Amino acid sequence: MSALIKAAWSYRGFITSSVRNEFKSRLARSRFGTAWVVLQPLAQVLIFATILSNVLAARLDGVDNKYAYAVYLISGILCWSLLAEIIQRCTTIFIDNASLLKKVQFPRIALPLIAIGSATITNLALLGVILLILPFLNIFPSLAFLWLLPLMLLTIALAAGIGLFLGTLNVFVRDVGQIVAVVLQFWFWVTPIVYPITVVPEGFRATLAINPVVPLVLSYHNVILFGQSPDPRVLWSALVAVIFLLAALLLFRRGASEMVDVL
Fold first, then answer.
1. DSSP 48
2. In Å, how far are 83, 105, 240 from 169, measured between CA atoms?
């Protein structure tokens, strides 16, 4: 494991430049350039704030703010979008870069790190837009917002562990990539992102208790909407993240040497 860390550190320049080049290629021939990184999440935020808050505000109990549901939804999506993008990209990262792996010698662990870095920057742009919008929704940042950094890091750790595990497995069992897309859709709807957890029947809440994303999403809600500290059950998310990271690194270490032959 220490060898992987040393390899990633020695190629840190390659990783950072690759993240930068990916954004350049994504925004190439775009008239607004890097503004799209902000404009796209801004449009999403505005839709939630202007439409969904008016339609579904009554479903969020205990909050007088008419935009409470929009902020609730935005907070959950901020967490979910980071998790889902990292998992999706890491799941196919080795297959998508098969030709590069066959032609160039570099630590294979650099590829998922590039995907994680790119997804993190996009999520930070979304967070920046949300912070600018919140005062217009009668939500003002407090000291509790400092919890967002450790929550993002924990979300990244959980997603990285799951993504690297699935990405390594996907090289040898190609059905994994197809299954992940379906599982993520199901996972989204069994996580209280678009609905308050209070509307979930008691019998189903026991199932939600094993979902490691639920405490993360609830913690984002606590911090952004209510100005409170994270949900204490976020420790369960941290435990699952550590387990997946260890399992993923072990699997990756065993399978990395055979990847090129299989690809």
1. I
2. 19, 21, 19
DSSP 107: -
Higher pLDDT, 232 or 44: 232
- Contact between 137 and 69 under an 8 Å Cβ cutoff? The reply is no
pLDDT-derived band at 49 (thresholds 50, 70, 90) equals low
Q: What is the dihedral of CA 31, 33, 37, 43, to 10 degrees?
A: -20
pLDDT at residue 58 greater than cutoff 60: no
DSSP 8: H
Cα separation, 46 vs 187, whole angstroms: 25
Kindly report the backbone phi and psi dihedral angles of residue 194, in degrees, each rounded to the nearest multiple of 5, phi listed first: -100, 0
Q: How many residues would you count in the chain?
A: 263
Q: Which helix (H) or strand (E) holds 17?
A: helix 12-26
pLDDT for 80: 93
In this prediction the pTM is 0.88
Residue 175 one-letter amino acid: D
pLDDT band at 105 (very low <50, low <70, confident <90, very high): confident
Q: How many other C-beta atoms can be found within 10 angstroms of the C-beta atom of residue 70?
A: 28
Residue 92: count other Cβ atoms within 10 Å of its Cβ: 20
Q: Shortest CA distance to 215 belongs to which of 155, 157, 160, 159?
A: 155
Tell me which residue of 163, 209, 166 sits closest to 190, measured CA to CA: 209
CA 22/CA 176 separation, integer angstroms: 25
Confirm if 180 and 166 have CB atoms less than 8 A apart.
yes
Distance of CA 103 to the CA centre of its chain: 30
